[in-house]
Amino acid sequence: MKRFTRSTTNRILAGVCGGIGEYLNIDPRIIRLFVLILLVTPIAWAVLLGYVLMALFTPQQVTPWEEIIGRLFQRQNQRQWTHSHTTTEQTNSTYRPNQAREAEHVDDESEES
Known about the structure:
Blueprint: H1 16-24, H2 28-39, H3 44-57, H4 64-112
Helix pairs in contact: 1-2
């Protein structure tokens, strides 16, 4: 499913018109011309408000390089978590026998008394 995002490649101000054009498969210049025509009508304030809200709340398009870098960082974080998790388990597994030995030692001393 296609998501609406602000364009990073076809932008003049915030990429809203470019994003609408890419989403609807229309030349963004046609969208920009339509917005300019609406700006000279009595509803210009609504058009400006809509543009500003879309610029603020619409996510920006992710470039292929950003996607690759994001996946690399995600994999690296997973490896670090897995490594730290196994290290903790290894530490706990080597520590438990020592605790058991100490408990046996304490039991032996109490029996001798």
